Amino acid sequence: MTRPDRVDPPLTGGERETLRAYLDFHRATLAMKCDGLSDEDLRCRSMPPSTLSLLGLVRHMAEVERTWFRRLINGEDIPLVWSADGDFQVAYDASGATRSEAFAAWQAEVGHARRIEAAAESLNVTGHQARWGEDVSLRLVMLHLIHEYARHNGHADLLREGIDGAVGA
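RE: above sequence
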């Protein structure tokens, strides 16, 4: 596995710079876990009855980025890509998905998220999280995504090891 565009987060720095760096580190880690694999490999499921696969994780994270940055922080009235009913588990089933389709959607959403975060006045900017019935800050969104990526990168590590034995951070 190569380390595509993965830069270690700074050991010192401001809050926003550190959050941004950790989020980008985890985004790059997911890409690294998928690097060099065929579409077939990327669709390999973890174990029955789970539909979890590396492509499914990429699709899931596209939905997560879209929901938290575009829909919540930016207030865009847009549908989800794969999870019409808000059930992100639907994105995990990537049985008919391709690398190009999943990565194009994910990279587009990451691009939107970066633009929205960079344009925000501060980490105190809020959006409404309807499911919780509360307003949440950009700070919480960035922390939530770091947590979400970290959890799923652990899944990605196990999936990758099962495919070709490759392990590592």
